[in-house]
Specification:
The complex is a heterodimer of chains A (about 500) and B (about 150). With about 500 residues, chain A is an alpha/beta fold. Helix content of chain A is about 45%, strand content about 20%. Chain A has four domains: about 100 residues, PAS domain (Beta-Lactamase); about 100 residues, Helix Hairpins, CATH 1.10.287; about 150 residues, Histidine kinase-like ATPase, C-terminal domain (Heat Shock Protein 90), CATH 3.30.565; about 120 residues, Rossmann fold (3-Layer(aba) Sandwich). The chains are: A alpha/beta (about 500), B alpha/beta (about 150). At the A-B interface, strand 3 and helix 3 of A face strand 1 and strand 2 of B. The structure holds guanosine-5'-diphosphate and magnesium ion.
């Protein structure tokens, strides 16, 4: 029996020794009453019965326990991770210490990763917001740049617009003088006419460039006879080729009366530009134009044996305002830029292939859907009126007014000229006219206001706007106000008479 | 030492107690106890694991605290905003004990705390310090100021 009891005690002691906890018992003054003998294994030393535990164990200092309390992960005085449970009773506190190394490792792995991730996430967010800020800054700069480009192009169109009016009058008077001049004067005047035309085309290019930049260019596709476009172009550029020893040919592969839908005036513009360039830069040899129509696609190639373009210059050639140095040729440097943009708008692409000293091939294609021919396309003839028309013209530019008056009177039209909108309004109250020609920009009362006053007074005389402003928006406004026609200076007298015929019954 | 994870509680403690600093981040698990003498007072510093994505602060570690150092990271505004709610948890557990605030990582170029925020803390009677565990800025003043308030 006693042996048995010893045995039991022995077993329980060994079980206790193997337990994963240690303990000590304190009185309410933190004095050690009892301590398990395995405390050292948990990092506690010197914890003898009778000592003040707060002298030995920092985490007991100041702690205030009335209920069961647990510090689940704390370090022992030796620095090992332990779990501490306080079990208070009336006059004692039992402090149970358990090993927490495994739990420590587990938590450490988990926590370290999680926290590092979260820090990374924070950094990432910061970076992203920095990127966002940079992006906004860039966008702002972009807007500023675009604004600068817009200002530049509106300056360009403003300036070129201002040039058109005086140029129109130079061209008009040159034409008049040409009519009755001797041979020498005629030569001089022809030279003036050519120069004025050239100047006008440069101005048109500048205007177009400005419009492209402000997205104001619109295509106006209509039923077009291809052969007509090409023969017109040939007529225009052949004289250029003939002044040089350049063999100029145009070959097309379609039947006569082949109709397609496209903006013929823009196509003309592109062809004149490309072919004109080819001739301009070719002093001898040939300029060969080959055009073919296949699957609703018009393909044109213009090959020349001219000076060619170096590889380095080929890269810059499509940039606005760029011109090859030392060629001795003049221009705005806008022709090719505009041509390429128009071609792109027409659903095609422009390609340039060149070797210096050998020649250049410019080829392009545009969409050209074929269509049944329309037959009511008549040649334009100067309209003859069977009675004398009376026209009121409001125009502040004396020279233009005088020119238009001359041209109209030649056709038997009676013209009354006033210098601003207010005078026109006043005149219309006392007198009837068949037609009113109205400039837009005039002192005292501008064209728009004059038209709205005239219409406001119930007057239905046809009004044709006549202005140097080629911007589409003006046309829309003129229509809105109740104008019947719209002509852009320099006014072609045939156009004017045509409109007049349509309007005057 | 109370505050979000990785604000510099361990770093401030180690700088103050052992005058060391490490750039390497080692997350504190549970609580780490250190002691140091400030004048004649033995100060036991409980470097408590910060509030983090996995767990709220364990209020058991706050029991018995005679003063609190709230630590925020001046480069992470969320850790400064967190202080008010941490204060509520703390005051629940330990009552209205003296408080000092460390707006830490003052050496860092991204450090930015609004003066309104600082005034709000001061209005609660807290002493606010711009600290850097890395460079030692205001570390001594932070702890000494708390000890003076507790005595
Ligand atoms: N630049 C800088 N970094 C610090 C400062 N204090 C702490 N850190 C860093 O911040 C990270 C977290 O610090 P730690 O003391 O572990 O934060 P705890 O989780 O609040 O204990 C570590 O990488 C530290 O090196 C400081 O004053 N300046
Ligand atoms: Mg820490």
């Amino acid at each position: 029996m006693s042996l048995n009891q010893d045995r039991v005690a022995e077993i329980s002691q060994s079980l206790f020794d193997r337990r994963q906890f240690a303990y000590f018992l304190l009185d309410t003054q933190w004095c050690v009453l009892e301590a398990s003998n395995n405390l050292q294994e948990f990092g506690f030393s010197n914890l003898e019965v009778g000592v003040d535990a707060t002298d030995e164990i920092d985490f007991l200092v100041g702690i205030d326990i009335s209920d069961n309390h647990e510090l689940s992960m704390i370090s022992s005085p030796a620095g090992d991770p332990i779990r501490v449970t306080f079990i208070p009773s009336v006059s004692t506190i039992t402090v149970v210490i358990m090993d927490a190394r495994q739990e420590f490792l587990r938590q450490k792995q988990l926590q370290q990763k999680a926290n590092e991730n979260e820090l990374l996430l924070g950094t990432q967010e910061k970076l992203l917001s920095e990127i966002e800020e940079a992006k906004i800054k860039l966008e702002l700069q972009n807007v500023e740049l675009q604004e600068a480009a817009r200002l530049q192009s509106s300056f360009l169109s403003g300036v070129s617009h201002e040039f058109r009016t005086p140029l129109a009058s130079i061209m008009g008077y040159t034409n008049l003088l040409l009519k009755d001049s001797d041979e020498t004067s005629a030569n001089y005047l022809s030279a003036m006419k050519r120069s004025s035309k050239h100047l006008l085309s440069l101005i048109e290019n500048l205007l177009d460039h400005g419009k492209f930049d402000s997205n104001e260019i619109m295509l106006n596709p209509k039923s077009t006879e291809l052969a007509e476009v090409f023969s017109d172009v040939e007529l225009l550029v052949r004289p250029l080729a003939e002044t040089k020893s350049v063999n100029f040919t145009i070959t097309t592969d379609w039947q006569a009366a082949c109709f397609v839908v496209l903006d013929d005036s823009r196509l003309r513009q592109c062809l004149i530009n490309i072919i004109g360039n080819a001739i301009k830069f070719t002093d001898q040899g040939r300029v060969t134009v080959v055009a073919s129509l296949k699957d609703d696609d018009l393909h044109v190639s213009v090959e020349d044996t001219g000076i060619g373009v170096s590889e380095e210059h080929l890269k810059k050639i499509k940039q606005p305002f760029w011109q090859a140095p030392d060629t001795g040729k003049s221009g705005t440097g806008l022709g090719l830029t505009i041509t390429e943009r128009i071609i792109e708008m027409m659903g095609g692409a422009l390609d340039i292939d060149s070797s210096e000293g050998v020649g250049t091939t410019v080829s392009f294609n545009v969409m050209a859907p074929s269509i049944e021919p329309t037959f009511h396309q008549e040649a334009q003839v100067l309209t003859q009126f069977n009675r004398s028309l009376s026209v009121l013209m409001a125009e502040d530019d004396e020279d233009i007014a005088f020119l238009v008056t001359l041209l109209l009177e030649e056709q038997g039209v009676k013209v009354v000229h006033v210098a601003n909108g207010a005078l026109a309004v006043d005149r219309l109250q006392h007198e009837d006219f068949d037609l009113v020609l109205m400039d837009l920009h005039m002192p005292v009362l501008n064209g728009y206001d004059a038209v709205s006053q005239i219409r406001g007074a119930g007057n239905t005389t046809p009004i044709v706007i006549m202005t140097a402003s080629a911007i589409e928006a003006d046309k829309g406004r003129a229509q809105e106000l109740g104008c019947d026609g719209y002509l852009v200076k320099p006014v072609d007298i045939a156009d004017l008479l045509n409109i007049a015929q349509q309007l005057v019954t | 030492m109370v505050g979000d994870f990785a604000v510099g509680k361990t770093s401030l403690t180690q700088k103050f107690v052992n005058n060391v600093f490490s750039d390497k981040y080692l997350t504190t698990i549970g609580v780490k106890i250190d002691s140091v003498m400030v004048d004649d007072t033995k100060v036991i510093v409980w470097d408590v694991a910060g509030r983090d994505s996995l767990s709220p602060i364990n209020a058991n570690y706050l029991v018995g605290a005679a003063g609190i150092v709230f630590v925020g990271d001046g480069t992470r505004p969320s850790t400064i905003d967190a202080m008010s709610s941490l204060w509520e948890t703390t005051v629940d557990r330990v009552g209205d004990v003296p408080v000092v605030v460390a707006l830490n990582k003052h050496d860092h170029p991204d450090w930015s705390v609004s003066s309104e925020q600082i005034i709000e803390f001061s209005n609660r009677g807290w002493d606010v310090f711009n600290t850097s565990a890395k460079e030692g800025e205001n570390v001594k003043s932070l702890f000494e100021s708390l000890v003076h308030k507790m005595n």
